[in-house]
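User: Hi! I'm working on a homework problem where we have to compare a predicted structure to a textbook description. Could you give me the structure for the chain below?
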Amino acid sequence: VEGVFSNYVINVNFPCTPKFEETLERELEQIHRLGLDWYLEPVDYAAEFHTAYVTRGLYARELKRWFGYFPREHFLILKSEDFFAHTAARIADTLRFLGVDPAAYPPNASFPTHLPGKYDQPMPPEIRERLREFYRPHNRELAQLLNWDVADWDQ
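Assistant: Happy to help. Predicted structure tokens:
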């Protein structure tokens, strides 16, 4: 849910970006009319990429496609919340995954946040709840796929 709004805030400076509520309504209507795979068509996706906020958050669907081409053990998938809360540990995990000695990364190094999530206005509560409802089954699918606890994503 936060990612949807974050992507919008990044794109809002593009010319002709519609209001957040309008963008979501249009995309949710497109999903309802064409199904969840509407954005996989190259023509549609190219035209709609900067407003495909909801469909880009369907992580399980995307990962399953990748897992069809590459073995699951070739992927290291991290929750961004965990990464930012435990940056040094996650960087060490990433280095080990890549076969690099974690000592190669300075222990006091930092990972700056370039877009810290400071928005001019918050996401409207009714939109937040609608997105939570939409994502709930998709988040459960992701949790099952990765053996993750994503209960906090429903909060």
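For your comparison, note the following. The mean pLDDT is 81. The helical segments are 2-11, 20-34, 42-48, 59-67, 80-85, 87-97, 125-146. Good luck with the assignment!
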